[in-house]
Write a structure and sequence with these properties.
By secondary structure, the protein is of the alpha+beta class. The chain contains ten helices and 21 strands. The protein has helices spanning about 45-60, 115-135, 140-145, 145-160, 170-175, 185-200, 225-235, 355-385, 425-440, 480-490, and strands at about 10-20, 35, 70-75, 75-85, 90-95, 100, 110, 205-215, 215-220, 245, 255, 260-265, 280-285, 305, 330-340, 340-350, 395-400, 405, 445-450, 455-460, 465-470. The strands form five sheets. Strands 8, 9, 12, 13, 14, 15 and 16 form a seven-stranded antiparallel beta sheet that branches. It starts with 10 loop residues before the first strand and ends in an 8-residue tail after the last helix. About 40% of the residues are buried.
C-alpha cells in the first residue's frame, strides 16, 4: 500500500504508558511497558519507542531534574511526555501534516506550525485525568492489586477513550479546557440552588451535586479540577449521550448511548417547553437501572475517584508536585437527565445503590426538573430575543474559575468535530500561538498582530485572565485599536481588570 501524498491535519501516531522501575533485569525488561497504542505495532518497535523516550528523559534530566524532557520535535512527528505520578510516564505522539513536494525531487513539505505543543500537552493531561477520575491513580491500583491488574485497567480504558479526542482540530479551546457557564437571573439561580439543597437533604448519601443545562454549567459542589474533567466527560465525551460500559467493575470505558427512561405526563401540553417542538418529555437515568419498570433490571453504578487532579493549564498541581493525590475518595456517579438538564449526583461509596434508591430519587427530582427546565428555557428565550449582534469578535478565558466566553465560537466544542467559528482557521491558530506565549509567563502582557488581510488580532493577559479580540479595521492604527479594545472591555467586561 503506497503512502499518502499529503496530510492536511495531525493524526494520532502512538500513545504509551511505562514504568522504568519494572525493568529489573534483561528478562523483565518488557514489564516496564504497561500500555501501547496502536496494539498492532511489533513488540520490538514498542520497546524501541520506550527506550528512546527513556533516553531523552534521562539525558534532559541532567539539565533540569524537576522538568526533564516534555516535548520532542522531529520532521514527521511531535511527541509530548507527562509524568503524573512517581515513576509513571505517559507519551502521546501525532504525525505532522505535509503537502506534496515539487515534481523535481518529490520531497514533501512538513507544516510543523500546524501542531501546537500546548494543545498536545492539554490532550495528554486530559487523557490521564479522565482515566484517574473513573479508575483512581496508577500508584494506588498497583499498591492494592498488582501489575497485571493495572495493565488490565489500562487496556479496558485507553483504547476507546484516546480515539475520541479530536487531534485533527486541536486548538486554543482544547488548551483552555474551560467550562461554559449559564447566565441566569438571581431568582432562577436561587431556585436551582434550593432544589439542589433539598435533594441533598433528602438523600444523605449524596455528597456533591452538579446541575448542567444544555451543556452549560449552572451549579457544582465539586472541586474545580474534578469538575473540569467531569464537565469534559458530560459535554464532549461519552457521558454526553451514553452510559459508561463496564464501570460497575471500577473501570469506566464509556460506550454507546443508553438511557433508562419513562415518559412523564403523556402528551399534556403543560409538560412541554413553551415555543419548543411538540414532544414528550423523556426523563430518566443515564447511569443507573436499565429499566425503571423492572425491579430486577441490571443497575449500572459507575465509580468516581474524587481528589486532586493535575490541571491542563499548568496553573496548579497537587501539593507534592507530582500531579497526583494518594487519598482520592471513591464514590458513585448518578446521571439523571430531563431533556436539556443533566443532574449529576456524586454519592457516597458506602451507599446501597439498589433499585429502591433510584426509584425514590426519580420520584423526588422528576417533576421539579421539568419545572426548572421550563423556567430556564423561557428565560433563555427572552435573553436571546433581547440580545443585539456583537460587532466585536472576542474570546475570554479565566484560569481562576475556568470560565470561557466567545462571540464568534460555539462553545463548548462538540465531540469529534471541528470548532464552529465565524472566523478563518488561521485566526484560531494565531490565538493558539498567543496563548502559548502567555503560558510561558504569568506576567501581565499584550500581543498585537496585523495580518496580511489587514485585520488586527489582539491578545491580553492580566491576573490569570486571557482576552483575545479580532478587529476588521483595515485603516486603523495601533492607537485606534487600543481605544477599541478599551471600549470593548468597558462594555462587556466592565467589572474585570485588564492591563492598559
Amino acid at each position: 500500500m503506497s503512502a499518502p501524498k499529503s496530510q492536511r491535519y495531525p493524526k494520532l501516531h502512538n500513545f504509551f504508558v511505562y514504568n522504568p522501575t519494572f525493568d529489573r533485569s534483561e528478562a523483565t525488561e518488557h514489564e516496564k511497558l504497561l500500555f501501547f497504542y496502536p496494539p498492532e505495532v511489533s513488540h520490538d518497535q514498542k520497546m524501541k519507542s520506550i527506550g528512546l523516550a527513556e533516553a531523552l528523559i534521562k539525558y534532559s534530566s541532567t539539565f533540569s531534574k524537576e522538568k526533564p524532557c516534555e516535548v520532542v520535535h522531529t520532521l514527521k512527528v511531535r511527541q509530548v511526555f507527562y509524568n503524573p505520578e512517581p515513576d509513571f510516564w505517559l507519551s502521546l505522539s501525532v504525525t505532522i501534516p505535509f503537502s506534496p513536494g515539487s515534481k523535481k525531487d518529490g520531497t514533501p513539505t512538513y507544516h510543523e506550525e500546524s501542531v501546537q505543543n500546548v494543545v498536545l500537552e492539554a490532550f495528554l493531561k486530559q487523557i490521564y485525568n479522565m482515566y484517574k477520575l473513573f479508575n483512581g491513580t496508577l500508584t494506588n491500583t498497583l499498591a492494592d492489586f498488582n501489575r497485571e491488574a493495572l495493565v488490565h485497567k489500562l487496556d479496558m480504558f485507553f483504547p476507546q477513550y484516546i480515539r475520541t479526542l479530536d487531534y485533527e482540530h486541536g486548538d486554543v479551546v482544547d488548551a483552555f479546557n474551560g467550562i461554559q457557564f449559564l447566565p441566569l437571573d438571581k431568582n432562577t439561580y436561587l431556585r436551582i440552588q434550593c432544589f439542589v439543597n433539598l435533594t441533598e437533604s433528602e438523600f444523605d448519601a449524596i455528597k456533591y451535586s452538579v446541575f448542567i443545562y444544555n451543556d452549560h454549567l449552572v451549579w457544582s459542589g465539586l472541586e474545580q479540577d474534578d469538575m473540569r474533567v467531569l464537565y469534559r466527560y458530560l459535554t464532549q465525551g461519552p457521558g454526553r449521550k451514553g452510559r459508561p460500559r463496564g464501570a460497575g467493575s471500577g473501570v469506566s470505558t464509556p460506550s454507546s448511548p443508553a438511557v433508562s427512561s419513562v415518559i412523564v405526563g403523556g402528551s399534556d401540553p403543560a409538560n412541554m417547553f413553551p415555543g419548543s417542538p411538540s414532544r414528550n418529555l423523556n426523563i430518566g437515568f443515564v447511569t443507573g437501572p436499565e429499566d425503571l419498570q423492572d425491579p430486577q433490571t441490571a443497575i449500572n453504578a459507575p465509580r468516581l475517584f474524587v481528589g486532586s487532579i493535575a490541571t491542563t493549564g499548568g496553573q496548579s498541581e497537587s501539593t507534592d508536585g507530582s500531579g497526583a493525590e494518594e487519598s482520592a475518595e471513591e464514590l458513585y456517579l448518578v446521571i439523571y437527565q430531563c431533556n436539556e438538564i443533566k443532574l449529576c449526583l456524586v454519592v457516597s461509596g458506602d451507599a446501597v445503590m439498589d433499585f429502591q434508591f433510584y426509584m425514590k430519587l426519580h420520584a423526588f427530582v422528576a417533576r421539579p426538573l421539568q419545572d426548572l427546565g421550563r423556567l430556564i428555557y423561557e428565560q433563555q428565550a427572552k435573553r436571546n430575543t433581547a440580545q443585539t449582534e456583537v460587532q466585536y469578535k472576542y474570546l475570554y478565558f479565566n484560569h481562576m474559575n475556568l470560565a470561557q466566553k466567545s462571540s464568534f465560537m460555539v462553545l463548548p466544542k462538540k465531540a469529534g468535530g471541528p470548532l464552529i467559528s465565524s472566523v478563518a482557521p488561521e485566526y484560531i491558530q494565531y490565538l493558539t500561538d498567543m496563548h502559548t506565549d502567555f503560558s510561558s509567563s504569568h506576567e501581565e502582557s499584550e500581543i498585537i498582530l496585523k495580518t496580511n488581510g489587514d485585520c488586527w488580532v489582539v491578545g491580553r493577559q492580566s491576573d490569570q485572565r486571557q482576552f483575545f479580540v479580532i478587529l476588521n479595521q483595515k485603516n486603523a492604527n495601533m492607537i485606534e485599536i487600543n481605544e477599541e479594545i478599551r471600549r470593548l472591555s468597558q462594555t462587556h467586561f466592565g467589572n474585570i481588570f485588564f492591563v492598559d
